[in-house]
Amino acid sequence: MAVTRSQKYRMIELDEIKYEKLSSQALESLTEYLEDLGDQMVDNEEFDIEYSQGVLTLRTGNAGAGVYVLNKQPPNKQIWLSSPISGPERYDYDASHDAWFCRHTDQSLGQLLKSELTEIFGQDIEIPIN
Description:
The two termini are 23 Å apart. The strands form two sheets. A seven-stranded antiparallel beta sheet has the order 3-4-5-6-7-8-9. Strands 1-2 form a two-stranded antiparallel ribbon. The chain has one domain: Metal Transport, Frataxin, Chain A. By secondary structure, the protein is an alpha+beta fold. The radius of gyration is 15 Å and the shape is globular. One of its GO terms (molecular function) is ferrous iron binding. One of its GO terms (cellular component) is mitochondrion. Keywords: Ion transport, Iron, Iron storage, Iron transport, Mitochondrion, Oxidoreductase, Transit peptide, Transport. This is ferroxidase.
C-alpha cells in the first residue's frame, strides 16, 4: 500500500470500489447541503447546483464569485476542484481523518470550501465533509 505524507494528512491508495463509495458520498453530501443552502437564499435567484455523472457544479449567482466545479478523477482516485477564488486543486483521501485533503496546501476540501463560501455569502457555512 503506497503512502504519501503531508504535514497533517496521510494519503493511502484506495481500491476502485472504496474510492467510488467515498467520493460519491462526499459529493452527494455536499450537493444536498448546497441545495438546502440555495433554498435559503431567496435573494440570489442565479444560485444553482448541479450534480451529474460525478461532476458537481456550483454557480454562486448574485454573490458574483463565479463557478465552482468539483469532479471525481477515478484514474487518480482523487476529487478535483476548480475554484474561482483559489484556482484548481487535487484532493486525496485520508482515512484516519476521514478527509479529502490537498497535498500542496495541507488543507482539507471541507476547510477550503467553508472558508471561501463563508466569505462569498457573508454567513457561516458549515460544510458536511472534511
